[in-house]
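Hey, can you fold this?
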Amino acid sequence: MSYTKNPLTVGRMHSICSAYLANWPSDEPLVLFFDELPWLDSPRSNFISELADFWGFHVSQHPNVTLVICGSASSYMIKKVEHNKGPLHNRITSILRMQPFDLHDTKKLIQAQNWHLSDKSIINTYLIFGDVAKYLTEIDTTLTLEQAIQESCFAFNALMTDEYTTLFESLFDNAQAHYAIMNVLTQRWSGDSHKKLN
């Protein structure tokens, strides 16, 4: 079952998933996985309340069902899930904190994909693509690093083409203010002080 961002779909999530659970064999394990909870929980969606009701009325009645929720905006997950004062309070059974890739992890992933790069190129890959495994797994490993950068960042419909905009829009309610700060910072090689930005 897939989900698209639509308040009507979110409002029906409870009934759709409960109907699915009603037909699930009680002795069969089932994992329900909701990724990017901050994105699903838009201001009008009421997703957290729907999820809490779904947990309370359905998932908790099925010992073989595991509900996994995650999100890349850690501040949201801590505030709205871990420290929830509402319907999700005290419902967490386990927390798996994901850590960003470090240079060693990056090297291991690159080698696992049979991408033959020198240590210097691995460092450059880490500096360019950061600690995001998704970016690293999307790279065409038949290319040189320079070709991969061209394909991932500058080619038509490249993986990274809209990443800057998408990332800021998903993380910040007022992304325009953050764009303005980033634009000022990129005007000078050395950046600017906090005092000058105010």
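Oh, and this one too while you're at it.
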Amino acid sequence: MQQNRATMSSPVPTQTVAPPGGDDIRGIKGPVKIPNPWLPFFWVTGIAIALLIGWRLWRRKQKAMATSALVPGDSPQQRARTALNGSLKSLADPPVFCTRISDALRVFLEEQFGLQAPDRTTEEFLQHLEPASPLSTDQQQSIATFLARCDLVKFARHHPPESELLTLFHTALDLIDQTQRAPQPSNGTGNPAFQSNRT
């Protein structure tokens, strides 16, 4: 009887069978990166904004270069001629040269007739020029052709020979001589018809 009790109270050995492949508790993995679908949009937007800011700064610098040699007491024609002569220093760099001669003509048109030309694109300027302008149709067409040829060099990577650049230079001088003979605004604030059209 005592032997049976001893047999019943003795612990029964157990054996733990490990699953094939080793330990069944795996380590903690790091966080899974989920791609952001907006990331390319943010990159493109950031680059576009940076390019726009750079372009505006470049335009401001070119405009300052075009007017840096101007003397306050001179007439618009004299200031334009001074700016055009100064642009010859950039003849070896066609885009800069065409920017400076086109800016010189734009500033002249603004000072002479009150036309807001310097801060507008060529297309915007010509659209506002047509409805009420002190310039003749032929003069407007000549200005449009000149600005289009300058834009071709500035933005379309057109690299004309020096002779063509000098032709543009003399064209700008001729346009200044022609347009200065147009009727002058009486109030000194620009063409009255153009001013009333803008308001």
